[in-house]
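User: I'm putting together a teaching handout on how multi-component assemblies are represented. Below are the sequence lines for each component of a complex, exactly as they appear in our records. Could you produce the 3D structure of the whole assembly as C-alpha cells, so the students can see both representations side by side? Please keep the chain order the same as the input.
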Amino acid sequence: MASFSVSFRDLDAPDDGAPVHVLDLHGELDAHTAPEFENALQSCLDRDRVRLVVAGAELRYVSSAGLGVFMAFLEPVRQRGGDLKVAALTDEVHEVFDLLGFPLLFDLAPTAEEAAARFAEGD
Amino acid sequence: MPRAHTLRIPGQTSELARVRRHVESWAREAGLSERAARQIRTAVDEAVANAIEHGIGDRAAETVTIQARAEAGGLAVVVRHRGDRFDPTAPPVPLADVRKRRAVHGYGLHLLRALVDELGYTHSRGTNEVRLVKRKA
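Assistant: Of course. Below is the structure of the complete assembly, with chains in the same order as your input.
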C-alpha cells in the first residue's frame, strides 16, 4: 500500500505578516491516497485558511487522481480571496504537472518560502 | 528468451502501489532508462486505476491482471479486467477544455496517452484489454 501523509506548518508572509499555511506532502499520491489529501485541504477551508502552499519536496509520486484534488480546490480557495500555490516539486512530479499543463493554472514556486512571499506581493 | 511476468490483483486502489513497484522492476529488467521506467509505471498505474474504477456497472472490477513482456525494443504491458467497455484509445475531452472547466476528472487518459509509445485496446466477451508499450529510446 502506498504511504502518504500530510503535515501542516505556518509561515509568515514577509510583508503583510499574515500567515501562510503550508501543507507538506510525503510519499505517494495516487487514487488510493488522494482522499487523504482532499481531507487535508478541506480541513483548511473549513477553518477559513485560504492562503495555502502545497509543498512537494517529499512527494515521490502523483497520479491523475492526486492532480484532480489540486484542481478541485483551486477555484474555491481563490473565490475566497486566497490561492493554492505549489512549491518545491521534484523533477518527477513536476514532469506530470507539466504534461497536463498545470503550470498554466497554478503558481509554482521553487520553495515554500518563495511561494509564501508571493502572497505578500499580491499574487 | 524474453522475460514475461504476470501479476493479478484484487480490484482495490490499495493495490496500486504494489503494481507500480512491479512495473518499475520489470521496466529496469527490460533495459528501460529510469525516466522511461517511471513513465510506463505511471501509465500502467492510470490504466489499472481506470480498470478498478470502471468495472461492471457501479461495481469495481473484481480482479485486474497485469502482464508484461520484455521485448527487444522495450516493455509491453497488458492490463486486463472483466467489465463494461472502457476504451482509453478513444479521443478524450481536449485537455484545454478539461482544465478550463477546472474538472476534477479527465486527466488520467491524457497522462496515459502522453507517456507511452503505443496504446491499444480490445474488448472481447466482457473483457477489456489495454496494451501499453514503452520503447527504450
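A couple of points students might notice: Residues 14 and 49 of chain B are 10 Å apart (CA to CA). The beta strands of chain B are 4-10, 63-71, 74-82, 118-124, 127-135.
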